[in-house]
Amino acid sequence: MPTTTPPAADALTDVTASDSALRRFLHGLPGVDTVGLEARAASLGTRSIKTTAKAYAIDLAISMVDLTTLEGADTPGKVRALGAKAVHPDPSDRTAPTTAAVCVYPDMVATAKEAVAGSGVLVASVATAFPAGRAALDVKLADVRDAVAAGADEIDMVIDRGAFLAGRYLKVYDEIVAVKEASGAARLKVIFETGELSTYDNIRRASWLGMLAGADFIKTSTGKVAVNATPANTLLMLEAVRDFRAQTGIQVGVKPAGGIRTTKDAVKFLVLVNETAGADWLDNHWFRFGASSLLNDLLMQRQKLATGRYSGPDYVTVD
Predict the structure, then answer these.
(1) Residue 219 is a catalytic residue
(2) Which is catalytic among the residues 255, 265, 268, 297?
(3) Whole-model pTM?
(4) Is 156 a known active-site residue?
(5) Residue 1's pLDDT band (boundaries 50, 70, 90)?
């Protein structure tokens, strides 16, 4: 059930009219019970699933992966190889599902697009001066437009954490709105970098701010800081999208990213989704994993279920 009372769908239209109105709304959200949030996340993480359900969960998780390479040393060859892996994660078993997307820097979008052509795998691109987001708005928007012009299906933007932490909420809101417009038909994922937001209350506020500004997804992290996706911060964001839909009728996706490396981790997050937001979010249109090494473990566990034994270290490619 929603944690707030659902008003009429248009009740939120005035909260972004001014900086003071937005501040009043965000600071009027219910405070987060830290102990309760972390206890619930830990409790849900203890759920176990049987073999048949585990096989389903592994394939679902594979289909939700945004297979990612965001390194200064990325080359066209590496991106093409990553694209091939996204299309056929296990070349020896064509029943393995494709991943949801390949995520790359804007200058690699065209290469990634060519690599996954005709497969249904999407191309996502980080933008807006990723990962720090420290650039002028016109530079950020040019970054977005370049990615879209190259064929990006999705844009992963970073918010200005300095502005957010300084309480300049309308600046952050206006920037998300501008990026959303520049993204055109591409879906927009808004990255909060939860490890830099300091408190759960700030994560809740950032979640609502992103959704009010038109985010198609809210995303935990860049994967470039010490603390990335955790069960607790993802649970909090799942509660936010659930409550936002209850109030507005608008469904927004969630993407935990960074630090999710094993099948066991992935299953814990899927349980969080099912038990918090509900089955409507158990689809790669509404939930993603931002990951690179996770896919390898999912494939190893999938092969173990099929054959009863673990494969050798050369079974999967090293990205």
Answers:
(1) yes
(2) 255
(3) 0.93
(4) yes
(5) very low
